[in-house]
Structures are given as C-alpha cells and as structure tokens.
Amino acid sequence: MASVQLEFKDTPQPLTEDFDRLGREMAEVIARFLPGAVVRLTYVQEKPVPGLGGITGVSDSCSSAPGQVVQQFEEVRGHSGWWREITVELPSQVAQFLGIGSGRMGLGGFYDAFAITLDVSRAWASAAAKSRLQEIKVGLVQQLPVWIVAHVAAAAIYDFLTYGRAKKHDALAQTIARTLEYLTSLAASRVEHRELSHGVIIGPLPRGTLPLSDGRYPEDFQALKRTPLLADGVRGALQVGPEGQLVAWRFPEAGQWEHGERPNSARGGAMGFMLDLSRRVRGIGVMLRPDGSIVVLRRGHPVFVRRAGRWHGLLWDPARRAIRERYSALGELIFDTAVLLASRGEGGVLALLDTPPASLHDKDMVDLAKSEISCAVSPSGRGRYDRKPPPEWLFHALLPTTNVEELGPGALAVLASIDGATIVDRSGELRAYGAVVPSSPSGAEGARSAAARELSKEGFVIKVSADGPITLFERSTAILDL
To answer: Among the CATH numbers 3.30.9, 3.30.2310, 2.60.120, 3.40.1700, which is that of 149-314?
Structure first.
C-alpha cells in the first residue's frame, strides 16, 4: 500500500529517465520500509532558503488528514541546479492504528533509518555522478537497497555517526551486504533437489572468544555445497564476527546456551531458532527461507524481508504492541498465529469477532458440534441425535479444548492453514475454522481478501497470503500490510 509520488513545482519535468534515478530508487526503498507510507518527491530549480536543509520530524496528531512523519530538502546530486524535497506521510488510519502521535507509540528507529538511507544514497549518487558509464549507474541503483538494509541493520550494533565506531559500523555493514548478496544467489539455486534455507548471525565477537584464524564468511563458504544443508537456520546456524570472522556453529539442542537456556520457537515458527539466537547473542540474523525470501533480524526482531526481488520493512513488533492494546492478549495470540502461518509459507484468515456471522454453515460451527455430538449417544447406547452429523463435526468434537489460549498459536495455526476462515469470539472461544464466508470479491481482490473484508465488519481480521504478506483489516478496510 506504500507509494511514491513525483511533482515538479513551477518547472517543466525533465524528459530523461536518468534524471535522479538514485533519488527515485531511494524513495521506493523508504516507501517499502514503512508500510502504508506515501513518499512525495517535489523538485524545484531554485535554491531553498538558508536553514531549510536537514531532517525534520513532525509529530502526527492522528487527525483526519495524513500525518507528516519526516521531510528533507537537499540538492540533487549529478543534476546541477535541481533541488529535491522528500516528504514521508502516513495515512491517518495507519497512524491511528499504530498509535503514532497519540503518546502510545512512536516510529522508533525509522528516523535513524531515514537518515542512513539519505547518507548511503548521497554516497551512491556521488559515485554515479563521477562515472560516465551508464552500466555503472544502473548497477549502483540495483545495489542501493541492499546497502541501505545493511547499514540500517548495522546501526543497531554500531552507530554509523559516532566517532570511533564508524569504521566498525562500515565493516559490519559490508559483511551484512555481502551475506545478503550470497543468500540472494543461493535463493536461485538447488542442492540435492532441495529448496534451500540458510541462517547466519553477524555481530560483535563475544567477550573472551577467539575466532578461527583461517576462513571468512561468506567468501570461504560460497563454494561449499554443504553450507545451506548444515546451517539451514532451523536445525543449525553459523555465527560470525563483524568482519566475517568464524565464531561458532550453533544448534538448538546443543549445550551452547548460558544457564541451560535453549531457543523457543513458539512465536517464530520456522524462524524461532534464528529469532532467539539473534536476541541471545545480540546480533544481526540473516535467514534465507525455502520460499526464496530473505529475512533480516535485529536482536530478536524481524525488521526486513526480501520478497519477489524487493526489500520491505517489517512492522511486526509495533503491530503486535498496537494489537495487544486494542484487542488484549487474544488479539496478540491471533497475530502470533498469523506470523507462524507466514513463516511456513501458508495462508489463512483469522478473525476476532463478538459473534460469528449468521451466514456460516452448521458444519463449520465448533460449539454446535461439541454440544450435539457429545450428547448424541447416551450411556445406554441410545442416541438422541435424529440425523447423521456432518463429517466435519468429528474433528470438531475431538478438539481437546475450544479455548484458544489453551490451544496456543501452534495448534491454532494448524486449524487456520486449511481453506476457510478461523473465527474466535471475544471470550477466547474457537467458534469456527475452515469456515466458508459468503462474500463478493471486487476487482482483482481474491477470495481470502473478500472474506477478511466481510468478516471485519464485525471485528478485527488478519489475512495471511501464502506468499508471505500479512494484512490487517478493521471496519471493512485493509489498514496495513506487514
């Protein structure tokens, strides 16, 4: 739902595609980093008033108008006489949902990420301006998102502006970037006819740890066929230092954890090991998933994903906090279930409603199956049920509990992975799963989106696409893509 808008103020638009190519790519990256954002590029041919440059953060009031998050005015590198204003705005519904400007929540590291994006883009633009070869300029545009992601991730460990730490930051960012490029090439290959996954943790050397004197990651591992098989990010992962020094080979069940602690995958599904590992060693996790996507984790939090060739920001943690505040622990549990589905490459629709829609079929109603089948046969063996129950009721009746907090995200994800909607009421009772929701898709909208939109008339709904994105719905409106 993010977008980039261009405007040429009081001046004709240049006709060349090469005009501010890097600036436009930078705007695309920013828009994808902050889901739902609108990034506006306004070009002028007059020098701005003194003091107008620099980054300005603007607090959102959550009014009916979009909220301006940040703006920047600077000269366009390589195009003398042109100036560019960048404005980032959030639609009011996104700002309201996340609590931006209300005192509940801020944008956290987005301002830092914005500053780093500008800094890296300036360096890239300077390099492009010095080169007369068009292929070099195109190559720099293609590499820009990778290096922005790498520098933003590295800033969680070493401040890129702090004197004395800039060199450490740059070394770590270069290692992250090379790793991302390696995993991108790995995503297009197969080993022993398998879809590959791979996990590596990059961060400061643990105190008292001496890395191996030989070998560097990823250079010395790229030619090894066994690398993704032995460090798949689920059953094992590599830990390396800021410059790719080899530190450790980690396993979930091995005795490598302090105080007997071991990773817990309850929230992250297939990414659970990497989430815990990146948090415990306070590093940057990079994971290639079997579906070809690449996820960047920062100290236990997923922050970026590369899907279908493009990098996107992940607001999973801010969204989880907002959902918990609006819909209590039940909403958070449903969100955790959605994350599990996404981590497995499975789709589904999860709804938190006051009551299920009257249009649902009896075969999908868990409470009806429980009450009718449990009473169908009396102790004497003589049943009171006057017709054969729907076959689906057999599974409903065998559920150990209908309380979703007792079922947990893992079991709920199993139910939500089949076709149809999973519906939970506000008391935490599972009312239906695999439920067909009568709806009318509009335009290019798919069946899942139409069902989610219909259900959200009466509550909060999360739709998970099989290819990864998670969409939040309220009041028949898609609020936010994650």
So the answer is: 3.40.1700
